[in-house]
Amino acid sequence: MSAVWTASRAAVRRRRVQTFVIFLVVLVCTATALISVALLDAARSPFQRAFDGQNGAHSVVTYDPAKVTDERLTAATTGVEASAGPFGQVIVEPQNDVGPVFSQPLTVVGRADPGGAVDRVDLWHGRWPSAAGEIVLNEPPQPDEDLSMGPLAGVTELVTNGKTLRIVGFAFTVSGSADGWVTPAQVAALHPTGTQMLYRFTGDVSTHDALAARVSGVTTGLPGDALLAAQPYLVTKEEAAAGPGVYLPFLGTFGILGLLVAVIIVGNVVSGAVVSGFRHIGVLKALGFTPRQVVAVYLTMVSVPAVAGAILGTGLGWAAVRPMLTETFRGLGFGQDAAVQPWVITVVLLGVPSLVLIAALLPALRAHRLSAAQAISAGSAPRRGRGLRVQRALSGSRLPRAVSLGLGLPFARPARTALTMASLLLGVVTVTFALGLSDSVIRISEVGEIAAGDIGVRPMRGDEQPASQRSDTEIEQMLRALPGTSQVGVGVARDLSVAGQSEPLMINFVRGDTAAMGYEQQLYEGHWMTAPDQLVLPTQLLNERGLEIGEKVTVSLQGAWTTFTIVGETVRGLPGPEGAFATWRDFPDLDPAAFFYQVQTVEGTDLGAFTQSIRAADPGLDAWDNTGGDSFSTVVTGFAAVLALLLATVAALGVLNTVALNVTERRRDLGMLKSIGMTPRQVVSMVVTSMAALGVIAGLLGIPLGLAAHRLVVPLSADAAKIRLPEYVMQVWDPATLALLAFSGVVIAVAGALIPARAAARLTIARVLHNE
Amino acid sequence: MTTETPVVRLDGVRKEYGDTVALDGVTLEIRAGEAVAVMGPSGCGKSTLLNMIAGLDKPTAGEITVHGERLDTMNETKLSLFRRHHLGMIFQFFNLLDDLSALDNVALAAQLTGSSAGTARRRALELFDELGIATRRNVYPAALSGGERQRVAVARALMNRPALLLADEPTGALDSKAGEQVMDLLLDLNQIGQTLLIVTHDERLAHRCASRLVELADGQVARESALDRV
């Protein structure tokens, strides 16, 4: 066995506490780093990952079956890497109520199975249609409990062209190739109007022009008018970018914070370990170790716990981040289980130990240059005191002496104190930012929830029950009369042609308590409608249409052109496709099933029982629970909580390390203080005070920085999602919260200092004082 | 100037560290005003004996009574409070805090008992005057000579007017001149009634300052004898 290895092993054994601290710090930092990097990676390209996972179609192309045969389509392969189809395709109009999600005309495709070379559809609930009369609908995956409680709960069949299709499952395509799938035989019975081909191309597919060229290539040789439509994947990708974009700044900030704290703490711990071993370095040199061997001993000594910590930390981080990412992607609607990429694991597994080695190398190189005598004296000779003026001022203060001594300790090691301070500061910033972010997200989510009402209601025909025969006014009165009802909003959505635009505009005509339920509260510009010719639009709709407050929109309404003025901008519209708000109008010819109702209940109402009471009062009504927060808020608050906790733990471990080093270095002082009558409790209070003081400063400095990060990142996220935020979403801070946050620095500091402080209190004085 | 009242009484004190027996049934009394020197070869149990009497370590068996109180039954906190009020200690390597001035090092002992900073400093200054180091009061330990450091340590030990002053090789780290000064100091203290227990290898120190010599061998009291101070 080499002398270097023997000396390293001895050093590890002799410094068990420090070795354990390095192991623990590297373990938690590695886990944090893995979560952070995996998070950054996942947030970077969620669409692409889902698209690659399903082998998504670069282009979904629809042909006219009257102009081109299936055989010719199959034979056209110019520039095609892989294809699926031909599939019969038909547009159907739902004649029964299948909820707001499927209220539009649906593209139904005949496919024998969900797999294939292109567009491997994710069948996440139920089974694939195997017989006539069965259909699977396209819907992003959601937990079973959401499915049983949400708007899809009562959806069992689709009626179209007089045919009833039983819904046997839900599947999801990231390519957006269909709204529903039936068997090829069934689609034939529905008289398909198109033939669908799904293509993956070779060559450049990064731009719309490139994709158009690829489609042009594959259709060369086909009849000129056979091509009906081609939907490039870039459209879906761009639409998706607005959704996941919300998460990027949130998650990215946490990722960067995580890495930063990990780097600082690891650097602090490792360099401290080497510096505190200077005396040992001197002894090794005196024994005849060459400077290189000394450096090797120290690097080996630090590497053993670091490598062990990095391996276990990677496993821990992987286990923690996997369910988090899966939940995130489910929330984003990409329908995939997000795996941690191998490169992430490799980078973290190699990166953290490398970081440890670099951190150890710098002080070890200093030891390399020191002579044996210098190294020994650096570790053991009486040193000149530091921060003497502060010590003097403190010793004359009225504070208990244990406290004033504790307050002076950080000045004795300014560099170490600065590093500890940095980790504490980052800890406080993280906690502050996480709290602000969670509060803001909850507020955003609450606005949606409040506005959506606790309970959604719609007249709906069940399997054995006809839809409600009550008029909309009677239903509203019935809902208002139910015990537990606080507010009721009534709405009807109409797709209306817009003068000068090809795309219709959906307008929700509302009455009752709709404004008071939260929609008015989320206005951040303009005002709620006060006249029948006024509109309020959600930001996303305004942006998409390029409209502004004050502009006029002319629509075809009840057979006449009617002009509305946009008077307000709101965060969100009603559940479902984004639409404008207008005041109520009577639509005498409208099917009662077109009306929907939102009920806000009195606080504390049992929503399950309330939903049952609606169904009992009128079995022709379907009612569902709208509460529970959206996946957006769940994911962000979940990530915020987990990473804030991890980073606070890492910061506390940084403190623990600093105190452990201080206690080791000051054993003689501690022994002397105990010998002249300092009680164990006073020793604990002195040591804890030394860190609590830093915690207070970190609290005072960290809070403004955390507030600034919140003020910067939340609007950035909103911009990415193409929404703006009402100011009250940002006003999450109150004096009590800030006071609590100021306390967080102290809590982290005390939590980290307590264990080594207690160890200091238990030091055996006799050994400490007589072994010098 | 001794009285019959024992300040220290050890009865059958035994201390084991694993398989090693450091003290083996030591029985000893030190009366108020006495100056007792404990000597013996390395490993005979001198430091262990001093630790037991100072309440820095607990015996495996036997009773230790100091200033009328049983130390062997006290918990850590009570021992700390006892040391604070009734014992003073001087160490071979001084054990001063590098970050505090000489004056603050000494005042610290009184501040731990609850004295205000002003009161503690006034008392410390009196001691600095008495010990002849008043001009060095604002100097930090790193700038003091060995003898000066030990005088500061003595001043700190005397701050709370202890019933017993314990000295562990007080001249061991000093040159001969500084050692002489410390010996004179200890002798003076004993002559004004301070009870002393000195653990040392230095026969000159023992014969100069102590009135009684306790010799230890293999953890037992091998011999006790009265000394005529030189």
From TrEMBL, chain A:
<dbReference type="GO" id="GO:0005886">
    <property type="term" value="C:plasma membrane"/>
</dbReference>
<protein>
    <submittedName>
        <fullName>Putative ABC transport system permease protein</fullName>
    </submittedName>
</protein>
<feature type="transmembrane region" description="Helical">
    <location>
        <begin position="295"/>
        <end position="320"/>
    </location>
</feature>
<feature type="transmembrane region" description="Helical">
    <location>
        <begin position="340"/>
        <end position="362"/>
    </location>
</feature>
<dbReference type="InterPro" id="IPR025857">
    <property type="entry name" value="MacB_PCD"/>
</dbReference>
<dbReference type="GO" id="GO:0022857">
    <property type="term" value="F:transmembrane transporter activity"/>
</dbReference>
<feature type="transmembrane region" description="Helical">
    <location>
        <begin position="20"/>
        <end position="40"/>
    </location>
</feature>
<dbReference type="InterPro" id="IPR050250">
    <property type="entry name" value="Macrolide_Exporter_MacB"/>
</dbReference>
<feature type="domain" description="MacB-like periplasmic core">
    <location>
        <begin position="417"/>
        <end position="616"/>
    </location>
</feature>
<keyword id="KW-0472">Membrane</keyword>
<feature type="transmembrane region" description="Helical">
    <location>
        <begin position="736"/>
        <end position="757"/>
    </location>
</feature>
<feature type="transmembrane region" description="Helical">
    <location>
        <begin position="246"/>
        <end position="275"/>
    </location>
</feature>
<feature type="transmembrane region" description="Helical">
    <location>
        <begin position="418"/>
        <end position="437"/>
    </location>
</feature>
<comment type="similarity">
    <text>Belongs to the ABC-4 integral membrane protein family.</text>
</comment>
<dbReference type="Pfam" id="PF12704">
    <property type="entry name" value="MacB_PCD"/>
</dbReference>
<feature type="transmembrane region" description="Helical">
    <location>
        <begin position="639"/>
        <end position="663"/>
    </location>
</feature>
<keyword id="KW-1133">Transmembrane helix</keyword>
<dbReference type="InterPro" id="IPR003838">
    <property type="entry name" value="ABC3_permease_C"/>
</dbReference>
<dbReference type="Pfam" id="PF02687">
    <property type="entry name" value="FtsX"/>
</dbReference>
<keyword id="KW-1003">Cell membrane</keyword>
<feature type="domain" description="ABC3 transporter permease C-terminal">
    <location>
        <begin position="642"/>
        <end position="764"/>
    </location>
</feature>
<feature type="transmembrane region" description="Helical">
    <location>
        <begin position="683"/>
        <end position="707"/>
    </location>
</feature>
TrEMBL record, chain B:
<dbReference type="InterPro" id="IPR017871">
    <property type="entry name" value="ABC_transporter-like_CS"/>
</dbReference>
<dbReference type="InterPro" id="IPR027417">
    <property type="entry name" value="P-loop_NTPase"/>
</dbReference>
<dbReference type="GO" id="GO:0022857">
    <property type="term" value="F:transmembrane transporter activity"/>
</dbReference>
<keyword id="KW-0067">ATP-binding</keyword>
<dbReference type="InterPro" id="IPR003593">
    <property type="entry name" value="AAA+_ATPase"/>
</dbReference>
<dbReference type="GO" id="GO:0005886">
    <property type="term" value="C:plasma membrane"/>
</dbReference>
<dbReference type="InterPro" id="IPR003439">
    <property type="entry name" value="ABC_transporter-like_ATP-bd"/>
</dbReference>
<keyword id="KW-0813">Transport</keyword>
<dbReference type="GO" id="GO:0098796">
    <property type="term" value="C:membrane protein complex"/>
</dbReference>
<dbReference type="InterPro" id="IPR015854">
    <property type="entry name" value="ABC_transpr_LolD-like"/>
</dbReference>
<dbReference type="Pfam" id="PF00005">
    <property type="entry name" value="ABC_tran"/>
</dbReference>
<dbReference type="GO" id="GO:0005524">
    <property type="term" value="F:ATP binding"/>
</dbReference>
<keyword id="KW-0547">Nucleotide-binding</keyword>
<dbReference type="InterPro" id="IPR017911">
    <property type="entry name" value="MacB-like_ATP-bd"/>
</dbReference>
<protein>
    <submittedName>
        <fullName>Putative ABC transport system ATP-binding protein</fullName>
    </submittedName>
</protein>
<feature type="domain" description="ABC transporter">
    <location>
        <begin position="8"/>
        <end position="230"/>
    </location>
</feature>
<dbReference type="GO" id="GO:0016887">
    <property type="term" value="F:ATP hydrolysis activity"/>
</dbReference>
